[in-house]
Amino acid sequence: MSIVRVKPEARWSDAVIHNHTLYYTGVPENLTAGAFEQTQNTLQQIEDMLKEQGSDKSKILDATIILANADDFAEMNRAWDAWVVPGHAPVRCTIQATLMKPTYKVEIKIIAAVD
After folding, report:
1. CA pair distance 94, 15, nearest whole angstrom
2. 96-109 per-residue burial string, b: 16 or more CB within 10 A, e: under 16
3. Distance (Å, rounded) from C-alpha 10 to C-alpha 6?
4. pTM of the predicted model as reported, rounded to 2 decimal places
5. Cβ neighbours of residue 45 under 8 Å, at least 6 residues apart?
6. How many Cα atoms are found within 13 Å in the side-chain-facing hemisphere of 88?
7. Taking Cα atoms as reference points, which of 111, 109, 41 lies closest to residue 79?
8. Is the CB of residue 28 less than 8 Å from the CB of residue 101?
9. What does the pLDDT look like over 50-102, one tens digit per residue?
């Protein structure tokens, strides 16, 4: 079975595809924004990556959301709930952890099916 690495660099690849499954982690680009906007930004990146690789957000199987601050849970959920495809919500967990960039409020890791 082949492994496709999307835009590989020395330390990481933007995404990896194996056995019709895409693995991707998104981090926000709008680092001065609040949790709602950072979540929207990260979700848009996820959607763009899925589209580039022949998939879409209805095919997300699993999502792990990491929040730097648990107080941002409601704002993250507000963005998520407006974005997720009704009837196609993936398995999801949300955790609080110190993120490696102090300006990150959210990081989202997904696993999705690819045709």
Report:
1. 21
2. eeebeeeebbbbbb
3. 12
4. 0.95
5. 26, 29
6. 12
7. 41
8. no
9. 999 999 999 999 999 999 999 999 999 999 999 999 999 999 999 999 999 99
